[in-house]
Amino acid sequence: MxxxxxxxxxxxMLEAKKRELSFGLxxxxxxxxxxxxxxxxxxxxxxxxxxxxRNLDRESKLLKSVRSALARIEDGSYGVCLHCDTAINPKRLxxxxxxxxxxxxxxxxxxxxxxxxxxNSPPKPxxx
Length: 128
Fold this sequence. Notes:
elongated
């Protein structure tokens, strides 16, 4: 069980990360479609746009995980694995404050995601 001061510290870190991600997601200038006279420039612009879209997607998923962690703090379930109901190691939470799973369950989730990619079925959402 985490102490109140540890939970306050985690909440402050999560709130800071939420602000950082929210600010970054507002900027969508990198995904505008640019036309160029040179076809090679257009290919480069398309590649840069694709990278920007992937980054926005990753940051959006991370923001969702951060918001979920903040909700778990509010409902008192923060620090408990969503799958097996065991306490998440405090060192893991210090490194990844939005972690929803213990290391063992996260590894299992990662393996099943890898398997779903191998079978060409839709990927499962990433959870930190």
